[in-house]
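Pipeline run #58 for the internal structure catalog. This entry was flagged by the ingest filter as a single-chain record with no existing model, so it goes straight to prediction. Upstream metadata was stripped on purpose; only the residue string is passed forward. Reviewer on rotation: M.T. Logging verbosity set to normal.
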Amino acid sequence: MESSLSGLLPPSMLIDIPEIDVQHEEIFRRIETLKLSSFGSAPTSLDEFDSLINYLEWHFTSEERLALLRGVPFAEHARVHEENLQMLRKALRGVRDGSRDVHSFLRFMEYWFERHINEEDKPFAASLHAPQS
């Protein structure tokens, strides 16, 4: 995986863990790509939406790996990740069955992810940066 940022991720959302910042930027890039491809119409396939959620799941395992390497407690953060994946999969099922608009799903996804970085990942990053005893 490339380890540099392209500038899509706002500086205020950087957590100063290059591997994770690059992944966060990739998630935002995928959301933006889906928004552009869906503009004015529904996408012909939801495969890229599935790919986004699968990438997010992979990203979550990256965070867990880093926590284990640093000896940082991760159970609560892992619980949040699992709840988030369930919520996002449920929302995507709504797109599939027609009860949710694809554009509202993408707006929801973008808002959720920004909130997740600010409220969950920044404190997690702080624990990774803290000296371990």
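catalog note: The helical segments are 18-38, 47-70, 75-97, 102-129.
catalog note: The mean pLDDT is 90.
status: ready for reviewer M.T.
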